[in-house]
Design brief:
35% helix; 7-stranded mixed beta sheet; alpha/beta; disordered C terminus; 540 residues
Length: 540
Amino acid sequence: MTEEYDVVVVGGGISGLTTAYHMKKRDKNLRVLVLEAKDRVGGRTQTVPLKSCNGTDLWDVGGQWVGRCQPHIMSLLLELGLETHPQYTSGKKVQQVAGPAISHYTGDLPSLSPFALVDLHRFLTKVESLRKQVNPADPYACSKAEEWDSITFEQYVQESCSTQGAIDSILVSNRTIYGVETSQISLLFWLTYASAADGILKIVEAKEFTAQEGTIKGGAQQVSQLMAKSIGEDNVHLAEPVAAIEQDEKGVKVTTAKGHSYTAGFAVLALPPPLYEKITFSPPLPETKKQMCKRMAIGNYVKIILTYQEAFWREEGYSGEVVTNGGMTAVPNCSAGPMSIVYDACLHNGSPALLGFVAGDIKVEWSQQSAEARRRAVLDQLADYFGKGVYSYLDYREKDWNEEPYSLGGPVCSMPAGTMPYFAKAIRQPFDRLHFAGTETATSWCGYMNGAVQAGLRAAAEILEKIRPQALSSEDYGALEGSRPATQPSQGLSRPRWMLHPRKGGPGASFLKWTVGFCCLVTLAFLAKKSRLSRHFPKF
């Protein structure tokens, strides 16, 4: 027996559920079904219980951070009644790049040599200028699109930077942001991604009005769980992987691997694009979309959470933040230690924890080791930064997103050099009655929860325009443009207290500090050279 609906949404992550949730908001009588292949909603967000100083608490082993620079997710959090907690950043930060040596710093300027700082500043200034020329809604409209897509991000970094400290800093950041190496990503895609976030500093920093500004109290998976509850749990089918999608001029038929069939006027595909290949389409997808899916790769990603009785690193003056090339390791077939980035993961209720990421090719190397060898290496690496207290953990959880059968990796998909024409022509374009959501299709903070929400709102508006045009609001028409950020949160919704604090800084202030620091360093370098002190500076 085939069940009939107005819309079938394939994918029960934030983006697919946003699509269904928004359509039901506009017309509660719409029959909307969500089919999710996993046994849970949430997509690339997942919140799990771990042992804590309070007995048991919840931590995110998937996406977790949000910021006030991300209007779509922040608006949704307010609507769902979810509050946020600021990321802890006070104290010394740890850095390990350009070799195994470990250094510490506070503030915005990394602990690099003067020449490496100047080099990195020059690079950031250049890419900020380039990314402003790229419209994330139409990246190939840029006059330099073909040239920038013909080279990898690594080629551009090597041509632009002359110090190992700057190169390593960029490599580590890229590995953590995309889950791939700089050699595996198109320069044009990298610029598109940065432009969608309105600047690279907003992506990499953890302060007010940046991507890592705060976390969601109780965990990020609540976003999907609350939307699923609002839609109606009978309308969200779990463990129902879709096997086939057929469409004609009358409608769409969606068939699952369990043999269940559903018909609808329209369907929405809210999956990472590489997963499209798990579905048989009739008629087949347009060639540009198929080529995009063949070339788009999802990153290699492991997230690690360690819980503790006390936040001993805070007591010793550390923020918990580490940027590292991994340092040295004696483990065979591993070129460096496992982790690239570490953060304080203490919850809003005070339960202490640290989190770290193993990503890119380093993740591939360490995946060939035993779980015990990886855990030992993670602990040894953390001990180098924070001391022996790291060994006294309460709980340890490793989440390998490559092992998720309907994720295949994380945190986001990216495009290699030479493939952006397919991306530009195919990433958002509807195919007759089939529409596309998912964070990769967003133009505002693609790859993040904000991008997932924005894409879901756009897909919902595309279909509502066809079946319920009278229900569309001015905000929906804005979403249809696909490139304009949503309006600010509704005035009638109360904001969490920490969101009311006046803006004290942000990426703009950071860039000013970088510029001032850059000028000071140039002056110092000149004076050092003039007074024959330049021999004290490291050579590159």
